[in-house]
Write a structure and sequence with these properties.
The complex is a heterodimer of chains A (173) and B (391). Chain A has a four-stranded antiparallel sheet, with helices on one face. Chain A is elongated and about 80 Å long. Chain A is built from five helices and four strands. Chain A has 173 residues and is an alpha+beta fold. Chain A folds into two domains: 2-49 and 127-171, ACT domain (Alpha-Beta Plaits), CATH 3.30.70; 52-118, no CATH class. With 391 residues, chain B is an all-alpha fold. Chain B has one domain (13-382). Chain B has 17 helices and no strands. In chain B, helix 2 (38-68) packs antiparallel against helix 3 (78-85), helix 9 packs across helix 10 and helix 13 packs antiparallel against helix 15. Chain B is globular, with a radius of gyration of 21 Å. The two termini of chain B are 21 Å apart. The mean pLDDT of chain B is 92. Classes of the chains: A alpha+beta (173), B mainly alpha (391). The interface between A and B is small, with 11 and 9 residues.
Chain lengths: 173, 391
């Protein structure tokens, strides 16, 4: 049995400060939902830097390799054609296409890696923790095993940072 | 924060002595060169004059771009760009000296040569000594005059805080960018491309623009790092501002190599003798290895260094990358200006002394101009946004 504690705030400053305070007092932050990107929230939530950059770089190298080898194989190995007297394996002419495959692989690879890792795939049914989350509220979701969750402290912290609303939710795994 | 007083940055006597020494050596090397090897001396003068012009132009361009795009983050570093702009008049002085050395480096300035050359005769309506000087004056007067107007708005803002100043500076900036940008393209045709008057490349202006932008950004980054160390920018400019600039640099070194390769590949592909002559000169002998060095310095190494978030937010790695780009700008200009007159590269005291002199002049003028005003435009509406920059 898991317990969710859902708090809504009116503005981003309260949210960031409350998030920091909750984590300092030993609560586990599951996620925060905001109408727009909030600077400093990732730090308050203790999020690690995204690894997407590395994935992007890997896909870029893959695209570069495929682009270069593909053109080399087509124009120098499989079906050599004399174009303007250039050598069959002409690196400068391969560059633009290799560049395009590099950014194509990097772009698409990053997007699909993001979708796959975050689970935001077509047909996914979103979990709505608080109705206002789709409107103008800044919502923080804490999660804990039922036995170790201290509701009194959580409520105290919530009201300290001017939370407008909070409720609890139980869910079996 | 020392926002409300003029900043206290100044050069120590020792630094002044060193800068004067380098400037003097540069001037001396040039004077000696004019009598011993005029072509080389004037080529060096053109290189350094164009370098100074690029630094000054980039300063104004950064100011103008950020006005026009309504950028908030750059307000805290605007005075740095404005101080860079003060280098532009000195670029004018150096470039104007070319009047006396035109005949040593520009083939089209000899009337007898032009008369016997149908191609040069056809271009003589544009490429003639009088037109060359008139255009140079027009370019510089426009850049400096309108640029000063934009900056004076920013200074007037310090006094009365009337937001109307920002609005009119935005309008002037758009005007400056549009006309001044076209002028920059033509200036690179006039001053650099006409060294080989039979050859032409329509992307040449853009190529020079990208080099000017990377070197200007590199100078801004180096200047900001040193200003931060002296403490003038304490509490005003954070590592986040440097991070924004290093992202600019990261993007524009790639833009530089993109344009370099665009020009190279189209000429390679078409393989027309009157175009390939440019690269044949630069792809044989010692110049060939300099071409590789050029790409390493201007793109490959800075790109590899700045690829990571950590290195973009670290003063040391930024200093290395920016210095490489500044040196790379010299190599890039060298590869444009010297091959027309030489079989193989020359490099000696004259090149070192004159570039060191140009850099010293830049630092001297920059520090003097920066010390005159407050370190940040304190009444600017976007200042708070800039001070709170968070990346």
């Amino acid at each position: 049995m898991k317990k969710y504690f859902i708090v809504s705030f009116d503005n981003e400053f309260d949210l960031v400060e409350a998030t920091q305070d909750f984590r300092d007092k030993g609560f586990t932050v599951m996620d925060a939902f905001t109408p727009y990107a909030v600077h400093g929230l990732d730090k308050a939530m203790g999020l690690k830097p995204s690894r997407l950059g590395k994935i992007c770089f890997g896909f870029a190298l893959l695209g570069l390799a495929i682009g270069l080898y593909g053109q080399y194989w087509i124009s120098a190995v499989n079906w050599p054609i004399n174009i303007g007297g250039k050598p069959w394996n002409s690196m400068p002419g391969f560059m633009p296409i290799a560049f395009e495959t590099t950014i194509l692989f990097a772009g698409l690879g990053t997007v699909f890696a993001l979708l796959w890792r975050t689970g935001v795939l077509p047909g996914r049914k979103p979990k709505i923790y608080a109705q206002d989350v789709t409107d103008d509220k800044f919502v923080l979701v804490l999660t804990e095993e039922l036995s170790s969750f201290n509701s009194d402290t959580a409520e105290a912290i919530s009201s300290q940072y001017h939370a407008v609303e909070w409720h609890e939710k139980l869910e079996s795994e | 924060m020392n926002m409300n007083e003029k900043n206290t940055i100044q050069l120590t006597n020792r630094q002044k002595l060193w800068l004067k020494l380098f400037m003097g050596l540069g001037a001396l090397a040039f004077l000696v060169g004019v009598f011993t090897d005029p072509t080389r001396a004037w080529s060096n003068l053109l290189l350094n004059g164009y370098f100074l012009t690029g630094i000054g132009f980039c300063g104004m361009m950064m100011v103008a771009i950020h006005y026009v795009s309504n950028a908030g983050w750059d307000v805290a570093i605007r005075r740095v760009s404005e101080a860079m702009f003060s280098v532009l008049p000195f670029g004018f002085v150096v470039m104007a000296l070319l009047y006396f050395g035109m005949h040593d480096i520009y083939e089209w300035s000899h009337e007898d040569v032009v008369a016997n050359d149908p191609i040069l005769l056809g271009k003589s309506a544009w490429l003639n000594p009088l037109g060359f000087m008139i255009r140079m004056v027009v370019y510089f007067v426009f850049w400096i005059w309108v640029g000063r107007k934009i900056i004076s708005k920013s200074h007037a803002m310090d006094l009365d805080g009337n937001p109307a100043h920002t609005k009119s500076a935005t309008g002037l900036s758009a005007f400056w960018l549009y006309i001044g940008g076209i002028m920059f393209i033509f200036s690179s045709f006039d001053w650099i491309m006409s060294l080989e008057p039979h050859w032409y490349s329509t992307i040449f202006g853009l190529y020079n623009f990208s080099g000017m932008f990377t070197s200007g950004l590199a100078f801004t980054i180096i200047a900001l790092i040193f200003l931060r160390r002296t403490g003038v920018m304490k509490g005003l400019v954070k590592i986040d501002h440097l991070f924004e600039l290093s992202r600019y640099l990261f993007g524009f070194v790639t833009f530089w190599v993109y344009i370099w390769f665009s020009q190279h590949m189209l000429i390679w592909y078409a393989n027309i003798p009157e175009e390939t002559v440019y690269y044949i000169k630069r792809h044989v002998g010692v110049f060939a290895s300099l071409t590789v060095v050029n790409i390493l310095l201007n793109w490959f190494i800075p790109f590899a260094i700045l690829l990571f978030r950590k290195t973009k937010r670290n003063e040391k790695s930024l200093l290395i990358a920016a210095s490489l780009v500044l040196v790379g700008r010299w190599v890039d200009l060298y590869m444009m200006i010297f091959p027309p007159h030489l079989e193989s590269p020359v490099f000696g005291l004259m090149e070192i002394a004159m570039f060191a002199g140009a850099l010293s002049l830049t630092v001297w003028v920059f520090v003097k101009a920066f010390a005159k005003e407050k370190a940040v435009p304190e009444n600017e509406p976007f200042l708070q946004e800039s001070l709170q920059l968070h990346t």
